[in-house]
Amino acid sequence: MIPVTTLKGRRVALFGLGGSGLATALALAAGGAKVTAWDDNPQSVENAATAGVETGDLRRLDWTGISALVLSPGVPLTHPKPHWSAVLAQAAGVEVIGDVELFARERRAHAPDCPFIAITGTNGKSTTTALIAHILKASGRDMQLGGNIGTAVLTLDPPKAGRFYVVECSSYQIDLAPSLNPSAGILLNLTPDHLDRHGTMQLYADIKERLVAASDTAIVGVDDGFCERIADRIERAGTKVVRISKRNPLADGVYAEGTRLMLAQGGTARPFVDLAGIETLRGAHNAQNAAAAVAACLAVGVDEASIRAGLASFPGLKHRMQPVGRRGEVLFVNDSKATNADAAAPALSSFERIHWIAGGVPKEGGIASLSGFFPRIAKAYLIGEAAPAFAATLGGAVPFALSGTLERAVADAAEDAAQGGGPAAVLLSPACASFDQYKNFEVRGDAFVGHVAALPGVTMLV
């Protein structure tokens, strides 16, 4: 735990007592703050009280003398309308912040020079975060990994000299972290997302920009217009910018040329690493993730040999294009996190002969947008509620089977892939939510791994 000493002796209100909110309340109390915490869910309030957190309805709180409202990132700050707790705080002139802001303040107070890498973007955040953390850990460094990737940042070990932090930041967290100042800040890409919480695409982009604008070194993917303009703007303002690209050569920065990452400086480029053969870093999207990781690790002083070794040994992120088993030339890939068509596209673009397992609870638009990848699909195995609709979309373009269950789909796909000859992938990339058959995508992915492990002759990779 990181005790929040920067609010010691002060009165603090906190709203949102889920996993990260409860961790924040405990960290504030451990640092000596006088916390009053609340949640709209009575069970969360009861859990917090049982854990020793002082609770009380913030609507009845005397806001005089309150130093801050610490808001859970899942609670609306501005759109579609501010949460009632934020309205009360703002009316009283109380700052509204989040757990990442508290982390940033503790770092500045106790170990301002300890390396801190923060990662944001619409897509690829978690893989890039996990990849950087793996490179640092594999190189023998004291590394702490947290944030939006699933570990509350204030549950990490406290800042100290030589300790590296790798923190994934959502737009919600950045919006609540006005003094966030990473050693290396990464903005991977921007596409429309979370507009219900930010109002417009421009406001969403403005929030993401804050992370890199305040970084010692800003690493920006320049393959979309929003990010390209952000890189130019913050560079003019005096920020050191390293550009990355998954498709275009750069005069300065890190870019992909086929499967190779090129390191460019002053118009001269040299090969840095070849990603060919690294199963966990297939595809153009992973080339962008790897380019960002290379740039960030170089920025915080990691030597080139350690970076290359870390890339080569990266085990992948669970449920995201995760190689889980192999039988002969057939690779089994768990991409259960792909819960809509856009999320399934990277995996479908990364293999040449695919036995595709898809289906579940369909999202709006189905899989019509994936038609450009249909020539790569040897056969589809359809499961869950979406199976009839997906079958209609595939029509005569792709052979398919109505497998119904994941277990049946894995068995059928494995048998067909073995008979096809040559390299093939049995790919679970459902393009659907899991809720018709599984509690969440993690449970679905674990079930896939279990069914693959039960096949005869499979060598498991996890």
TrEMBL record:
Span of domain Mur ligase C-terminal: 319-432
Annotated ATP binding lies at: 121-127
Molecular-function GO terms, alphabetical = UDP-N-acetylmuramoylalanine-D-glutamate ligase activity
Q: Which domain of life is it from?
A: Bacteria
Recorded catalytic reaction(s): these are: UDP-N-acetyl-alpha-D-muramoyl-L-alanine + D-glutamate + ATP = UDP-N-acetyl-alpha-D-muramoyl-L-alanyl-D-glutamate + ADP + phosphate + H(+)
Q: Where is the signal peptide?
A: 1-29
Query: Which keywords does this Swiss-Prot/TrEMBL entry list?
Result: ATP-binding, Cell cycle, Cell division, Cell shape, Cell wall biogenesis/degradation, Cytoplasm, Ligase, Nucleotide-binding, Peptidoglycan synthesis, Signal
Among InterPro entries, the record links this protein to:
Folylpolyglutamate_synth_CS, Mur-like_cat_sf, Mur_ligase_C, Mur_ligase_C_dom_sf, Mur_ligase_cen, MurD
The answer to whether the entry has keyword Nucleus is no
Where does the protein end up?
Answer: Cytoplasm
Cite the Pfam families for this sequence. Mur_ligase_C, Mur_ligase_M
Report the PROSITE patterns cross-referenced here.
FOLYLPOLYGLU_SYNT_1
Q: Annotated pathway, please?
A: Cell wall biogenesis; peptidoglycan biosynthesis
Q: What is its main location?
A: cytoplasm
Specify the Mur ligase central domain's residue ranges. 119-297
Which Gene3D superfamilies does this one have?
Mur ligase, C-terminal domain (3.90.190.20), Mur-like, catalytic domain (3.40.1190.10), NAD(P)-binding Rossmann-like Domain (3.40.50.720)
Q: Which family does it belong to?
A: Belongs to the MurCDEF family.
Q: What is this protein called?
A: UDP-N-acetylmuramoylalanine--D-glutamate ligase
**Organism for this UniProt entry:** Shinella pollutisoli
